[in-house]
Amino acid sequence: MLKISGVTKTFNAGTINEKRALNGIDLHLKPGDFVTIIGGNGAGKSTMLNMIAGVYSCDTGSIILANEDITTQPEHKRAKLLGRVFQDPMRGTAADMEIEENLAMAYRRGKRRGLGWGVTKVEKSLYIEKLKMLDLGLENRMTSKVGLLSGGQRQALTLLMATLQKPQLLLLDEHTAALDPKTAHKVLSITEQIINEQNLTALMVTHNMKDAIRLGNRLIMMHEGRIIYDVEGEEKKNLKVADLLKKFEDVSNGEFANDRMLLAD
Fold first, then answer.
1. Average per-residue pLDDT in the chain?
2. For residue 116, what are the domain limits?
3. Is residue 193 part of a domain?
4. Rounded to whole angstroms, how far apart are CA atoms 24 and 21?
5. Residue 55 within any structural domain of the chain
6. Which residues is 213 bridged to in the sheet?
7. d(CA 241, CA 125)
8. Kindly report the CA angle at 14 between 9 and 19, in degrees rounded to 5?
9. Among the four 38, 139, 155, 215, which has the fewest Cβ within 10 Å?
10. What tens digit of pLDDT does each residue of 161-192 get?
11. Whole-angstrom Cα distance, residue 32 to residue 197?
12. Could you write out the DSSP letters of every residue in 54-67?
């Protein structure tokens, strides 16, 4: 489903602020893989997701998604293949538009646009059915402006929009980090439900080690632009937070103090 080969990225090359963000990334995902990604600040986690999405171009290497070479495709062309949920709940929705209008935009992703009626009765029925799954009461607020929703409600709506048209790959970039613990747990439960029901292939960056171990079938750890640990199956199920802390300390030569709060929870 996804094949990243030899991808590198350097920002501000040749200047005093030069930063090697990705240093030869190789990553292959099978259809249905749900991969959690952990690592310290500056490990390259978000950069890798942004490279897949086309926000940044590769310096070297290639990205193949669903047998299509997207290495040089612009971001807008990749949008029909990808679903994305950002850390900031405000980024995934249009605040001045109604809930049903936001869903209608997501439903038309990758389709030809016409001059037909904006939201059909059939579509409204579909949106109500999908919103009920969130268990947030949003199905009774279809004409409410999205800007009136809480951060958690907006993030759940963004997740629904990202998967309304089944994406080839779902990218989740610390999508619960800005939420309070109770709301974050709710959004994660919805995330797990949607991924399992649709058998989605997903990459989820998280700062929470317990979530990284509990969710998905595979876990990767990044450090200084490299994937330094890749585990799945029974080995992943048997992992403990202490194992990941030890692994990180080993590869970072003990330089862990600034990242302990970020990674451990």
1. 86
2. 94-150
3. no
4. 10
5. no
6. none
7. 43
8. 40
9. 139
10. 999 888 999 999 989 888 888 888 888 998 99
11. 11
12. TSS--SEEEEEETT
